[in-house]
TrEMBL record:
Assigned EC number: 2.1.1.-
Family: Belongs to the class I-like SAM-binding methyltransferase superfamily. Erg6/SMT family.
Chief place of localization: membrane
UniProt keyword terms in alphabetical order: Endoplasmic reticulum, Membrane, Methyltransferase, Microsome, S-adenosyl-L-methionine, Transferase, Transmembrane, Transmembrane helix
Keyword match Endoplasmic reticulum: yes
Localization in the cell: Microsome membrane
Organism of provenance: Cymbomonas tetramitiformis
Sequence ranges assigned to domain SAM-dependent methyltransferase Erg6/SMT-type in this UniProt record: 80-372
A GO-annotated cellular component: endoplasmic reticulum
UniProt-recorded name of the protein: Methyltransferase
Membrane topology: Single-pass membrane protein
One Gene Ontology term from the biological process aspect of the record: sterol biosynthetic process
GO molecular function term, any single one: sterol 24-C-methyltransferase activity
Pfam families in the record: Methyltransf_11 (PF08241), Sterol_MT_C (PF08498)
Length: 374
């Protein structure tokens, strides 16, 4: 660019405008990242991380079997979410699930569209009573209450998620419409026929068996009403004899607190076996997203610091972040064990990304099912 045709005064003015624009563009993501990091480390007081060794032992195949993990599912899942919840919120936001991004959609818009699509399948009226099975910190429940006008009760096994989620509901002014409670979805603490709709987003994969959780959902749902879910499953492309596929499965289970993953057909059959009428079952990951992004793109590395969560997966940050956390452990800014949790979660992230890119795994096996009238 030939600057000689500009006067000193013009260069100063244009230069100042350029710097101001750059500051405005950069300031917002930087402020968001700084606020999340502050919240992660200081404001919430990062949880006790001592459970990491117990959790890792449960996934050590030389010490524990799949049957052990199924028997001890409640301890394992609760320990996992004690360890992982703050990391999830820091790196992902208040909704703990994947979504494909359609052309022109950003991460947040895709997240909300994915949730409200599922809610739409329940055919709810304003004021309806809805159950969110495995609700996390209630991100989807708040969005769905907002979208449908329904009252949403969320259930999670993890006490920290209940207190954090109800705190967020109060902060966002929806405490009247969304309430999180603690409980085990294998024994739902609700009377028979008490909900107008039930949904579950990437949660019932933590169950030791699908029949148990689906039969509980059937029990609490009113006759004629609908259950809709996105399930984590192995697909037809999964080859049980391939060591590579086995490793992907293992990394997902270990990095995501799952006892054992199963094939899509097993989940659909379990719904039928407990008495649901299955209205639809398909892989929503295969829905058209031409010009957009697959669900696993946020897990692929990027050097762009404004592309969270992808920036965390670039090789430098991937290696550096557990070291930084270890240094913070040594000066007691974060609890001992935090870096091991980060390594465990990274394994889950890589497993999911490879599961998605090879097509052997889907986190959105969509099933919509009705409870028969009698
Ligand atoms: C991946 S998170 C998904 C959370 C939420 N659906 C979302 O999309 O933000 C899985 C959730 O299932 C819950 N969960 C797992 N096993 C459970 C059980 N046996 N009973 C109740 N909640 C359970 C976890 O505590 C966690 O909240």
């Amino acid at each position: 660019m030939d600057l000689s045709k500009f006067s000193q005064e013009e260069i100063k003015v244009y230069g100042s405008v350029a710097v101001a624009v750059a500051c405005v563009v950069v300031a917002k993501p930087l402020c968001v990242a700084a606020h999340r990091t502050y919240d992660f480390i200081f404001a919430k007081g990062l949880h006790n991380q001592t459970e990491i060794d117990t959790y890792n032992d449960l996934h050590n195949d030389s010490k524990k079997s799949v049957e052990d993990r199924e028997k001890e599912y409640a301890t394992m899942v609760n320990a996992y979410y004690d360890l992982a919840t703050e990391f999830y919120e820091w790196g992902w936001g208040q909704s703990f699930h994947f979504s494909t991004q359609k052309k022109g959609e950003n991460f947040k818009a895709a997240t909300i569209r994915h949730e409200t699509y599922l809610a739409g399948r329940l055919g709810l009226c304003a004021g309806a009573k809805v159950l969110d099975v495995g609700c996390g910190v209630g991100g989807p429940a708040r969005n769905i209450a907002h979208f449908t006008g329904a009252h949403v009760t969320g259930i999670t096994i993890n006490n920290y998620q209940v207190s954090r989620g109800n705190q967020l509901c109060a902060r966002q002014g929806v405490a009247e419409d969304v309430k999180l409670v603690q409980g085990d979805f294998m024994e739902l603490p609700f009377p028979d026929n008490s909900f107008d709709g039930v949904y579950a987003i990437e949660a019932t994969c933590h169950a030791p068996n699908r029949e148990g959780v689906y039969s509980e959902i059937l029990r609490v749902l009113k006759p004629g009403q609908v259950f809709a879910t996105y399930e984590w499953c192995l697909t037809d492309d999964y080859d049980a004899s391939s060591p590579y596929h086995q490793q992907i499965k293992k990394d997902i289970e270990e990095g995501d607190g799952l006892p054992d993953m199963c094939h899509t057909s097993k989940c659909t059959q379990a719904l039928r076996d407990v008495g649901f009428e299955v209205l639809e079952a398909r892989d929503a990951a295969l829905d058209d997203y031409t010009g957009g992004e697959p669900w696993y793109r946020p897990l692929t590395p990027s050097w762009n610091p404004f592309l969270m969560p992808r920036f965390q997966f670039n090789p430098v940050i991937f290696k550096l972040s557990p070291m930084i956390l270890y240094a913070l452990e040594c000066i007691r800014v974060v609890p001992a064990g935090t870096h091991k949790t980060q390594i465990m979660l990274q394994k889950g992230g890589v497993g999911c990304e490879l599961g998605g890119s090879t097509g052997v795994f889907t986190p959105m096996w969509l099933m919509v099912a009705r409870k028969p009238l009698k």
